[in-house]
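hiii so my PI (J.) wants the whole complex modelled not just the main chain, which honestly fair. so below is everything: two entries, each one labled with what it is. i double checked the lines twice but i was tired so who knows lol
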Amino acid sequence: MRLDSVESLNRLRNESRQRLDARKKKIFVCLGPGCLAAGSDQILEEFNKLLAQENIKDYSLEAIKKTGCHGLCARGPIVVIEPEGIFYSKVKKNHVSQIIEKTLKNGELIESLLYSENGSKKKITDYRDIPFYANQYRIGLRNVGKIDPDEITDYIASGGYQALARVLTEMKPQNVIDEITQSGLRGRGGAGFPAGRKWATCAKVESDVRYVICNGDEGDPGAFMDRCIMEGDPHSIIEGMIICSYAVGSREGYIYVREEYPLAVINLQKAIDDARSYGLLGENIMGTDHCFDIKISRGGGAFVCGESSALMKSVAGDVGEPRAKYIRSVIRGLHDKPTVLNNVESFATVPVIIDKGAEWFTSVGTEKSTGTKAFSLAGKVINTGLVEVPMGVTLRHIIFDIGGGVPAGRQFKAVQTGGPSGGCLPADKLDLPVDFDTLTEAGSMMGSGGMIVMDDRTCMVEVARYFLEFLVKESCGKCVPCREGLYQLYKLCTKICEGKATEDDLVLMEKLSDTIRKASLCGLGQSGPNPFVSTVRYFRDEYLAHIRDKKCPAGVCRNLTTFTINDKCTGCLACISVCPVDAITGEKKKLHVINQELCTRCGSCYDICKFDAVDIQ
Amino acid sequence: MIPDMTRIKDIIARNPRQPGSLIAVLQDIQRAFHYLPQEALVETARELNVPLSKVYSASTFYNAFSLTPRGENIIRVCKGTACHIKGADLILDQLESGLKIKPGQTSKDMKYTLEVVNCVGACAMAPVMIINNKYHGTVRCDRALKLVKKG
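here's the output for the full assembly
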């Protein structure tokens, strides 16, 4: 079917809405990365198999929907039954027949699969009542987890491509740019550059060809928001890109997806093909004069390719080395032509801004950081998953109210935002509002949205060493300050972790950081020392403990750690069962002993012990 | 072992014959052979009219490419931030000593290749290990080797 006018889009929307009537029963099975890792594909298969054999009123095979990430990955695999919003968590394949028998046939709830807050016995049925969801505000993630990403009609039924129709028939390109500028939308990839200004500059440059590129290279370790949008709601990105292409006058676009996300490539390709066959991509979109098409460009697994000039080189089939940006890529980008590069979440947000207006968008968030931001919450936090909140809420709200805090018995220590270019913020910064400028001032950055929570079992020196190792590996090698400087910084940091450093080394590291910052060619190098700089700023004591006392307070750095068992040991055998090298001996109800010769200092015994019987020395 | 040249030629022919196709061609060859045979690099350079040095440069720049043959089973340990602080190194230790190979290496019997990946975006299930494209979440270090042997 080809949509050759706005009327035909509206007709299709109404038909699709009727088919997907909100009052009708539906079963949503989450196939997001977390749930998939826990085997949700088998659950979907089982539902399909069993429902095909049964004939249940209201629940035909059509009622089963596979979705992208629903959000609360910690409780995956997730199955949601609508319209009631019944939220079944940690579902296993053998639960499926039970769900069909009890819930679908008789309307009974299965208590054991329902959600309850940590430490509470009260079960919550509707996911909208769960604090993790109730505290969120979803714009970029509006459809993720709620529609089948493979069905273009699901997207259209949810109001998709309406913004595009309005843009193409009622707005001039300049109006679109004005709307985006007024909305205050800032790039969600990390740096927070105003999208409207970027579009305006691109449109003004004299050129026969302009490109629109979507940056789906989500290279920050610990970030998966963009993956979830690409997999779970690909059409929102495509619609955002088409709107941008109209605003800046482009006919050709690319989505650059990293190699590690094969499912994102498949879902995006299907979405592009569908959009093309519906006349939403290609020549004369929706019967208008506007023409635009999108190709997918797969990355090769190089972190530096998230940098704009490196990314464009990679799209052109080259090695992704950044260039000095005396001339910005919006003026001379891909193939030296003016290019708009925005990230996945930015493009996915664009249609909503057009739909609801710039004024509405600025009413959400703060004055200088409008709208919402998606975060992937992970690490030592109870509710790991996908979160979207208005800009300006506090870190505490995200980590404790939504994330449920750190697991029992542990202390919150730091939160890492912004990936390798960002930094770690300590507990006394928890009440800072989350927006672009505040986080940068505090020595971290918004980044693309990875948020990793750390507890007292995380060594901050070792975290800095980890990020430096990452950056050394990922430095493209073009400029010396980054290639050599970061390597020296990494070596010195390793020296601290091994207990071989002096305080002079720390001074040297601080000097070196300053040079790397000032002299590197691209953002990767310039921000490279951040993991060290922010940890030494807030956790200097921990560095000094390694250097002066030759101790690792968190019990992570192996050279500086010894685990011993004290007399609180009840002889429960738990540590013996988890020790990977069988270094612990002891009998039931008798004191256990760690053989220090065999011990690899992994700390598994410490983490599993419920009686405080393992000491870190 | 001489790779199947017709297959290599087929793969190259599926892409537009221009220098810009370089990464895409290498990705397709990597997918088909699980590594980039030398013969394939030479053929790619000739067909796309790109200097061999540039083909070599691209194939060593991107993490996705391997220049040595890989084993029957590919084991990837995620070293994203969340996985790291939840003990990815401990998993790696167990696998290294159990399989007697370091990351990037393949066991002598060509059965296992051990790799480290930056982040696979399944952070909520950290630490994550991927055995032949099957994800395993919240892996305990003492169970890692058993999971690998089970396949």
